[in-house]
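Progress against Task 2.4 (sequence-to-structure conversion) is shown through the following example record, which the project officer requested during the mid-term review.
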Amino acid sequence: MRIIATLLLSIILAISGYTTTRALFAKRFESQATLASGGIFSPSDHKFRCSGTEIGHAGDDGLFLTARHCVANLDTNEVHKYMLVSFSDNQGGPFYDAVPIYISLDDDLALLLVRNGAKIPEVKIRDERRLRNGDSIFNVSFPAGTGKQEFHGDYMRSEFPSLSNEMFKEYPVWARSMPMNMTIAHGSSGSGVFSKELRALIGVVVGTTEEGSYNIAMPADRIIDFLNDLRDNTVDKFVVAHPLQDEPPDF
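Structure tokens generated for the chain above:
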């Protein structure tokens, strides 16, 4: 009996230690994701535009993932060639110079080079299809001018079974997007969707719906495809494939 009791105690302690370790790793990742999350600003007036996430380094510079519509105007296809990025909590400085280096031809995704941003923490990207419906996810972004905020929600599935004709017609770049049960707001576009369980970025916020907290992101499997095919997603190729349009009339 004493041997069995000792064995049971060892198992309980092992499970307890494993649970504590997982919680610690999850907390560390949450902090890392927050530090890696930044805002995009206009260089002329420092006006806030969008959000995004540092996902890697290139020498002294950082690689910053965001949404395509944060970089190129959806109506005119004009590419914003110069931007500023800040990782502060209050949408203040320091500001880093940033330029778009890759824009997806097919999805609502883009990659910026952040000058001298190599010291900013980065996050890994993992395939969202490892998650199950209802698994916990969170987002770090700069919604509605309120500074850096964190939202929590639930993973739903890796893609929409179908998009409404109205949404697909207006936003064809969302054809392979995923739904998520999480509150976001204007200004959250381009920000990361994260999983503590996977300790990784599993999506990029691209839009909202009129259905409460039922919102839209580009899933990690599309992000990974984009990053694996950067030679075909350069800014020059985007400009050729999406020629500049006239400004729509302002009614």
